[in-house]
Amino acid sequence: MTAETPWGNPTGERQPLTPDRVRKQEFTRTSLGRRGYSEDEVRAFLYRVAEDMAASDKEKADLRAYIDRMKQWYKEHGMNPEQAAVSQTPNVDAINILSRAQQTADAQIAEAEDYARRIVSQARRQYEELLMEAQRQAEEAANQAVGAYRASGNGLQSAEAEELERRIAYLRTFADVTQVQLRAVLEGLAQEVDKLGHVPEQAKQLAAGPLAGGSPSPSVYG
Amino acid sequence: MDTQALKDSWHLVSRSGDQVPLYFYSILFLMNPDVRDMFPVSMARQRDKLVGALGRVVSNVDRVEEVVPFLQQLGRDHRKFGVTATHYPAVGQALLATLEHFLGDRWTPTLAHDWTQAYNLVAQVMVDAANESSKVSPPWWEAEIISHETRTLGIAVIRARLNYQYPFRPGQSASISYAMRPRVWRFYSFANAPRQDNTIDLHVRMVDGGVLSSALVMGARRGEVLRVGAAVGERLTLPADVQGDLLMIAGGTGLAPLKALVEQIAYEGPTRRVDLVIGARNSRELYDYEAMAKMAAEHPWLNVVPVVSHDPFYRGNRGYAVDVALQGWRGQHVYVCGSEEMAQATVGRLLDAGVPTEQIHFDEFTSDKGRES
């Protein structure tokens, strides 16, 4: 059930890796919790591999451009009979420049997305831990409250009152522990999420600025 | 047309990997700068998609019956990007120039002729399908958000009203985009059966770092407008030949299409017993349990069981949804929906437990499709 086969390659042949595929490669977790390679190291390595691949792609493109220029030269000097077509397509150097710009943009966006992904998952983990800790403390406080209620024994105790004491103590502790900290986590999370959208938008405006006379970009729907 | 020559030359070209689509898009944009704006800023995923689609077409070029429906779907689907018939020749030109560049000496006039013919055929099928669908449906629908509820950190339930009548069946999904994240489309399942008032419900979970899901959960507000593509997908619908009782297993927001099926049964029947096991990591992620419990109270044939896997303080069923579900399996058809990980693990467990393949309904592309695109 690999995602690639049905869509990409019915012949079942291995597709060449692309920098993007290397960057996004996921690894199965080992079954025993968190044992295995350091996630950061693996991730850093993948980025290096992706960069190397992109660099070698650039080199190949340069070589092809060089070959094309040579061919062109031969043609211009009448050494190659088949002259037709070729020239109405854009200059191969222009194609290379655009390709490189695109690769640079791709790499930077991938990096920004990866950064956002890490920050958000970190914030989520923190949130889970905070809630768990708050729940634990609240349980403890509730049990204490019940103990105190029982100890105060004046013969008028009822199960309902006891449950009420338990719930009040639970909620009070839970609210105390979570309120401030959770708000901080949530705010951080919201900020990161907002950034996620603004980065490319900003970059676009900067890029459009000088040429477009700094006019605001048109409708967001584009 | 020498189909073997086409395949062979494509095989040769595709060995250059990412460089091929990189070159293709560069040449396309240089010759037609206006087209650039139809694509997202990052093109990395787009390049993979192009190679995938081309590879599929070329490898099946001699089995027309397999390629045509795929191309028709592609043609219909491209309407939402604003692609018109006039764009196809430009793409063809860029494709031929790319092939020529990568094939070098092997690019012969005969091969050029065959590729031109093949491309024109492909373009014709896509344009025809697009024209055909433009007679009956708009390129996309606009849906105004009429409510946005954040149910827990990272999960929102969004209700939106579509501007025209929108045909879909429970269990289907559609690609959706949002003005705050232009040109990003992602598939979401509808969480309801079609309604008179033309509203749809979406259950959106924030994927860590996911551009669109984050914006929809944290940023989208009432009054804003979503774009919705045509409904697609048959794997999770309820066809007439699936009879008798059903067992449903939902993981997280995978509840959405299953809830739609429950509504369909409630509206249309036939009445059958439905056991719906809702799995979540913790109790907070049982984000729609109240609504489901209410439905269960209204419909005696519906049984809803929440199961929580990672929450030591949860007082109800603890464990994995599939294990609880298997205790109640008595030969029913089983519907599964959740994250890719959850769906794979669940289907594996079902098969191990002896549930016949043909009785397991799940969309192997739900999560794949669900990736940002």
From TrEMBL, chain A:
Residues 98-151 form a coiled coil. The keyword Cytoplasm applies. It comes from the Bacteria. Keywords: Cell cycle, Cell division, Coiled coil, Cytoplasm. The keyword Ligase does not apply. Pfam families: DivIVA (PF05103). Belongs to the DivIVA family. It comes from Microbispora hainanensis. This is Cell wall synthesis protein Wag31. Residues 1-33 are annotated as: Disordered. It is found in: Cytoplasm.
TrEMBL record, chain B:
CDD domains: Mb-like_oxidoreductase (cd19753), O2ase_reductase_like (cd06187). InterPro entries: Cbr1-like_FAD-bd_dom, FAD-bd_FR_type, Flavoprot_Pyr_Nucl_cyt_Rdtase, FNR_nucleotide-bd, Globin, Globin-like_sf, Globin/Proto, OxRdtase_FAD/NAD-bd. Its cofactor is heme b. It is an enzyme of class 1 (oxidoreductase). It catalyses: 2 nitric oxide + NADPH + 2 O2 = 2 nitrate + NADP(+) + H(+); 2 nitric oxide + NADH + 2 O2 = 2 nitrate + NAD(+) + H(+). Residues 138-239 form the FAD-binding FR-type domain. It holds the Pfam family Globin. Residues 1-131 form the Globin domain. Keywords: 2Fe-2S, Heme, Iron, Iron-sulfur, Metal-binding, NAD, NADP, Oxygen transport, Transport. Its EC number is 1.14.12.17. Belongs to the globin family. In the C-terminal section; belongs to the flavoprotein pyridine nucleotide cytochrome reductase family. This is nitric oxide dioxygenase. It comes from Microbispora hainanensis.
